[in-house]
């Protein structure tokens, strides 16, 4: 189930969750845990992704600290790499950041002043 976006190409999914029933041609009702009781249990197919068994892909719901509006904050863990780019006469330092609850393959590049 897609839960939110942080960055253009970084889709976030939580789960896997069992499909209880199909509701129409493009919607499914899922069996959600009690931690997600405030979330409606019917989802459009665009919000779902088939799960292929791989333990490194699963983010346990218990590890996510939700805000009252059901959003969550991501915290940087460490800087993996530092590089420089020359753009319009200026040198810009870029850092590759490892985020909490994400793997190394999902580390993102940021300009140094925004981290």
Automatic annotation (TrEMBL):
**Record's superkingdom?**
Eukaryota
Q: Known InterPro entries for this protein? A: SH3_Tf2-1
Specify the Tf2-1-like SH3-like domain's residue ranges. Answer: 3-52
What is this protein's record name? Tf2-1-like SH3-like domain-containing protein
